[in-house]
Specification:
mainly alpha
């Protein structure tokens, strides 16, 4: 089966965020912070892989934007948890 590269990248993104909907219990704020940061980190790693492997300049451009944006969001999230004095808590969803 052949997929357009952008569709494959979109599918990869959706798979990386799927664990967010699988939590059985209502997560606490520290757990949510860890989940969000972990999801961002997964997306950053996927973007780096796309940049490294793809020869399609549209994919590379999209991946660079995704890497930049998710790194910025993760930095803001870290700044916020420090400001709120919340320690992100590892949990089943963020593993």
């Amino acid at each position: 089966m052949f997929m357009r590269p952008t569709a494959a990248l979109a599918a990869l993104f959706l798979m990386s965020t799927a664990p967010l909907v699988l939590a059985a219990e209502k997560p606490t704020d520290p757990q949510i912070a860890h989940i969000a940061y972990t999801a961002g980190t997964i997306d950053i790693e996927a973007a780096k892989l796309a940049i490294e492997k793809s020869k399609n300049k549209e994919i590379v451009a999209f991946a660079k934007g995704m890497e930049r944006d998710h790194e910025a969001v993760n930095k803001q999230a870290l700044d916020l948890v420090k400001k709120l004095k919340v320690t992100p808590e590892d949990n089943d969803t963020s593993k």
